[in-house]
């Protein structure tokens, strides 16, 4: 991958070019505020008319296979966090005024066409560069309307970066932008996998889920439509309100996820060179605190994954009674 840090005058921004043999495209990181920088994606190349239809036939939708995918994604998340942790906060990365380049309009190789990728800026998407890869429709079509990336973005810059990156500036704005992109994409993908998890759970126990979904939808309509007259009904449904969440929550699985990511972070993040890299007591030195990643999973990644599951399930039944797949 060719990577260059460029800058634009309109709008001023950070840019990473990613060239492939098919196209030359790039990625722009701009910032509206210091806390919550803004990525912008553009792409100029178009689809070839002769391109063959590409279909992904590899899907295997069972809770076991989806959980295997979540486990594999832990590696991407841990590695991208480890990469990001080597740089300081680097405020300039997020400052649209810090660099400028006349007439630049950046773009990134076509992403977000797959059902397991979610754009951070859906209104500003580039044209596809590569022929579209069709995924089998395994989710209810309502899945396309669920995108909680604004929360992922906020969580990353507000809750993860301050704990992950040292304060200060080491001048590596380009690498910082690339690492942020990798982290955000890995986190977003993992969290939105909640749609697949939810679909598996629904298919395994449709009656239980349907009852819990209907109760929750009823509870929500009570709050919205009859906050006072429906008070008694609300109290009854209050007990049911969390039924959907408790149905899809597996505390033991969550504990083992946290334990596993902590162990993986110890393994992948251990500084392995010679004794010089051990601290005074001779203990191992880690690039990031292993418990930090376990905490990020426990406090953010798994709760947001569950939020996606709830969002999906609430829309999974349409109220006319017709269902998806
Ligand atoms: O594995 C599941 O059943 C999931 O729903 C995924 C997940 C997770 O985010 O890792 C979320 C909720 C469960 O309590 C356990 C794990």
Automatic annotation (TrEMBL):
Species of origin: Hibiscus sabdariffa (roselle)
InterPro entries: Chorismate_II_sf, Chorismate_mutase_AroQ_euk, CM_AroQ_sf_eucaryotic
Keyword annotations from UniProtKB, A to Z: Amino-acid biosynthesis, Aromatic amino acid biosynthesis, Isomerase
Top-level class of the enzyme under EC nomenclature: isomerase
PROSITE patterns (alphabetical): CHORISMATE_MUT_3
EC identifiers of the protein: 5.4.99.5
Domain of life: Eukaryota
Catalytic activity: chorismate = prephenate
Gene3D superfamilies with a match to the protein in the record: Chorismate mutase, AroQ class superfamily, eukaryotic
Protein name (Swiss-Prot/TrEMBL): Chorismate mutase
């Amino acid at each position: 991958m060719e990577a260059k840090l460029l800058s634009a005058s309109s709008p001023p921004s950070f840019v990473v070019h990613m060239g492939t043999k098919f196209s030359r495209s790039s990625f722009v990181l701009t910032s509206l505020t210091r806390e919550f920088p803004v990525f912008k994606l553009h792409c100029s190349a178009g689809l070839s008319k002769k391109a063959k239809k590409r279909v992904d036939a590899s899907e295997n939708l069972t809770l076991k296979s989806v959980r295997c995918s979540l486990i594999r994604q832990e590696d991407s998340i841990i590695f991208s966090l480890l990469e990001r942790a080597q740089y300081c906060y680097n405020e300039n990365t997020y400052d649209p005024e810090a660099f400028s380049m006349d007439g630049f309009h950046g773009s990134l190789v076509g992403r977000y066409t797959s059902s397991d990728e979610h754009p951070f800026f859906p209104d500003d998407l580039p044209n596809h560069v590569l022929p579209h890869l069709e995924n089998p429709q395994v989710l209810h079509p309502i899945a396309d309307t669920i995108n909680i990336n604004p929360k992922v973005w906020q969580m990353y810059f507000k809750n993860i970066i301050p704990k992950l990156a040292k304060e200060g500036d080491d001048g590596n704005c380009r690498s910082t932008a690339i690492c942020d992109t990798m982290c955000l994409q890995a986190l977003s993908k993992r969290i939105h996998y909640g749609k697949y998890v939810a679909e598996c759970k629904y298919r395994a126990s449709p009656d239980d889920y349907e009852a819990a979904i209907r109760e929750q939808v009823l509870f929500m309509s009570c709050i919205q439509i009859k906050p006072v007259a429906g008070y008694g009904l609300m109290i009854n449904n209050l007990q049911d309100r969390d039924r959907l969440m408790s149905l899809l929550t597996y505390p033991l699985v969550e504990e083992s996820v946290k334990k596993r990511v902590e162990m993986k972070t110890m393994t992948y993040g251990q500084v392995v060179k010679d004794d010089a890299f051990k601290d005074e007591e001779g203990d191992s030195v880690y690039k990031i605190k292993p418990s930090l990643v376990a905490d990020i999973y426990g406090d953010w990644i798994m709760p947001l994954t569950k939020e996606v599951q709830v969002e999906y399930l609430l829309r999974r039944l349409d109220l006319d009674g017709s269902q998806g797949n």
